[in-house]
């Protein structure tokens, strides 16, 4: 099967102005790697209707799987649902199933009144139409994953919710995109070398050129660890090319004074930078 191509859209002024640090795109990148999905683009945009619509109109023609994070709360700047709906020429309306779930789990009428109650139910105002489906992934959560055109999946921005809901959607996504446990997944190896990036650049260029002839999915990268006295070479590809990837590892070790490095150790070194 052809590999699923994905994009991630992080929505929120608070990310762009430095108020919060985005961790959702990093989590999603790791999720895609683990599940054999090819994440090709991550976009961070503000709470701006025109910007959200332009971004969605661009991405929906390129990718099969688009995840958005953020902008689905009850305040004036939470405009994700409405903006994405407009990009698909869809209306938004109160979703009665969602409203009922909110009432059963949060009992808003017991604590909110007037404008506050009205604003609370803004979160139940979803895109509507025949191409919209809402997935409720847990009995204790009222918020759904709103899906449009079996392509765009709208998630909350709160990291704990985003991560939980992405993981819970895995069986559904595998069914929607006809993914199976036998589909090829990505694998990655690391080689540690005391040589500088300038000293390894030509060899890595040759390895990349030769590898591309084997598969477009094989990617060779290098990552400097300043102050640690070494660099790391990353060798990434598909499981089906695992034997070839291992030969690249051996070549990098032999030609670049290297030693193979585990993923855990590479992460540890990266965290220490």
From TrEMBL:
Residues 7-176 form the MoaB/Mog domain. InterPro entries: MoaB/Mog-like_dom_sf, MoaB/Mog_dom. Signal peptide: none annotated. One of its GO terms (molecular function) is FAD diphosphatase activity. GO terms for biological process: flavin-containing compound metabolic process. It comes from the Eukaryota. Gene3D superfamilies: MoaB/Mog-like domain (3.40.980.10). This is MoaB/Mog domain-containing protein. It comes from Huiozyma naganishii (strain ATCC MYA-139 / BCRC 22969 / CBS 8797 / KCTC 17520 / NBRC 10181 / NCYC 3082 / Yp74L-3). The lineage of its organism: Eukaryota, Fungi, Dikarya, Ascomycota, Saccharomycotina. The gene is KNAG0F01750.
């Amino acid at each position: 099967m052809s590999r699923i191509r994905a994009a991630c859209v992080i929505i929120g002024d608070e990310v762009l102005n430095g108020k919060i640090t985005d961790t959702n795109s990093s989590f999603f990148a790791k999720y895609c790697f683990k599940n054999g999905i090819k994440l090709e683009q991550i976009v961070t945009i503000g709470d701006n209707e025109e910007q959200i619509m332009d971004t969605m109109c661009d991405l929906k023609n390129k990718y099969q799987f688009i995840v958005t994070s953020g902008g689905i709360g009850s305040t004036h700047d939470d405009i994700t649902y409405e903006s994405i709906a407009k990009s698909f020429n869809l209306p938004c309306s109160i979703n009665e199933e969602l409203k009922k779930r909110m009432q059963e789990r949060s009992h808003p009428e017991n604590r909110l009144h007037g404008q506050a109650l009205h604003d609370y139910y803004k979160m139940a105002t979803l895109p509507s139409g025949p191409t919209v489906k809402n997935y409720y992934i847990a009995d204790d959560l009222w918020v759904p994953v709103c899906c449009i055109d079996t392509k765009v999946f709208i998630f909350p921005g709160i990291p704990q919710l985003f991560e939980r809901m992405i993981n819970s959607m895995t069986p559904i996504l595998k069914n929607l995109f006809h993914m199976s446990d036998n589909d090829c997944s990505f694998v990655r190896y690391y080689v540690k070398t005391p040589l500088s990036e300038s000293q390894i650049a030509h060899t890595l260029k040759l390895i990349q050129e030769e590898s591309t002839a084997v598969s477009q999915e094989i990617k060779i990268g290098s990552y400097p660890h300043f102050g640690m006295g070494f660099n790391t070479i990353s060798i990434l590809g598909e499981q089906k090319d695992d034997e070839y990837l291992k030969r690249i590892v051996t070549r990098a070790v032999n030609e670049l004074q290297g030693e193979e490095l585990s993923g855990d150790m590479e992460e540890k070194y990266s965290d220490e930078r």
